[in-house]
Design goal:
Blueprint (H helix, E strand, L loop, with lengths): L1 E12 L2 E13 L4 E5 L6 H8 L7 E6 L2 E2 L5 H11 E5 L10 H10 L5 H14 L15 H13 L5 E5 L7 H16 L3 E5 L3 H4 L4 E6 L2 E7 L6
Helix pairs in contact: 3-4, 3-5
C-alpha cells in the first residue's frame, strides 16, 4: 500500500540544511496496524503529514496505492487524499457549529455523494458506533471520549483505504483511551490499515508493528510481540 524510498525532509536556515527526516525506506502493507514512536523532534508528525498527503515538499519517493505521490500536482495529491485517507486527531477537530450527524457527513460531501445516500450512510455509522442518541448534539455537549469516538467514526465513514491517527488518546483519560484503542483493534481486524503516532508504549502494543524514529532516522522497525498467556 505504501512504499517510501530515500524519503527526506529538510528546512533551510541560511546556508544550513536542517533535516527532519533522513533516508527513510520502508513499506506498509494493506491491513497492517503500525505505530510510529520517538522522542519530541524525532520527525513523527512530519512523517504522518507526508503520509497523509498534507505536505508535498519532500525529497525521495512516496508511492500510495501504486501512485507516485512525489510526482503529483497539489490538486491531484489532495484528491488522492480525500478519496483514500481518514484522519483521527488528538484535538478531535470536530466543527463546533455542526451536530454529530452533520460532522459525520462531511467526508462524504467531499466525494459528491448524493444527500439521500449521505443520510443513509450516516445513519448506519451512528448505529455501528452506538452513538445514535448523540446525533443531534453539538461537540461542546459531548465528553472528550465521546468527541473522539465521533472523530473515529468520521474518519472511517467513507471507507478509506488508510486511517492515520495522531496521538488519538492524548486528551483522554485512561479508560477512554483504552476504549479508543480497542476500537482501532476492531477496525484493523475488519481489514482497515492504520498508522498511529503515539508516545504511549501501552497503545503501541495494541498495534502489530512499531517503527521508532530518532532525529529523523528509523532506528528500529519490529513486529509487536504477541501477548503471553
Amino acid at each position: 500500500m505504501i512504499q517510501l524510498k530515500d524519503l527526506e525532509k529538510c528546512y533551510k536556515t541560511g546556508s544550513t540544511l536542517n533535516y527532519v527526516l533522513r533516508d527513510l525506506t520502508l513499506d506498509v502493507r494493506q491491513g497492517e496496524f503500525v505505530t510510529i514512536m520517538g522522542p519530541s523532534g524525532a520527525g513523527k508528525s512530519t512523517l504522518l503529514s507526508i503520509l497523509g498527503l498534507l505536505d508535498g515538499d519532500f525529497g525521495g519517493e512516496y508511492r500510495l496505492l501504486d501512485q507516485a505521490v512525489h510526482g503529483l500536482k497539489p490538486q491531484e495529491r489532495a484528491k488522492l487524499g480525500r478519496e483514500n485517507i481518514g484522519f483521527v486527531f488528538q484535538q478531535y477537530h470536530l466543527l463546533d457549529n455542526l451536530t454529530v450527524e452533520e460532522n459525520l457527513g462531511i467526508p462524504l460531501s467531499y466525494r459528491d455523494v448524493k444527500q439521500s445516500e449521505i443520510a443513509a450512510v450516516v445513519a448506519d455509522t451512528l448505529d455501528r458506533f452506538q452513538i445514535v442518541g448523540k446525533k443531534k448534539l453539538y461537540p461542546s455537549q459531548l465528553s472528550g471520549g465521546q468527541q473522539q469516538l465521533v472523530g473515529v467514526a468520521r474518519a472511517v465513514i467513507a471507507d478509506p483505504k488508510l486511517i492515520l491517527a495522531d496521538e488519538p488518546t492524548g486528551n483522554l483519560h485512561s479508560r477512554q483511551g483504552k476504549e479508543v484503542m480497542e476500537l482501532f483493534r476492531r477496525l484493523n481486524n475488519e481489514g482497515a490499515t492504520i498508522i498511529q503516532v503515539t508516545h504511549s508504549e501501552e497503545n503501541a502494543r495494541c498495534s502489530k508493528r512499531i517503527i521508532r524514529l530518532h532525529d529523523g532516522w528509523v532506528t528500529a522497525d519490529k513486529p509487536v510481540a504477541a501477548p503471553t498467556a
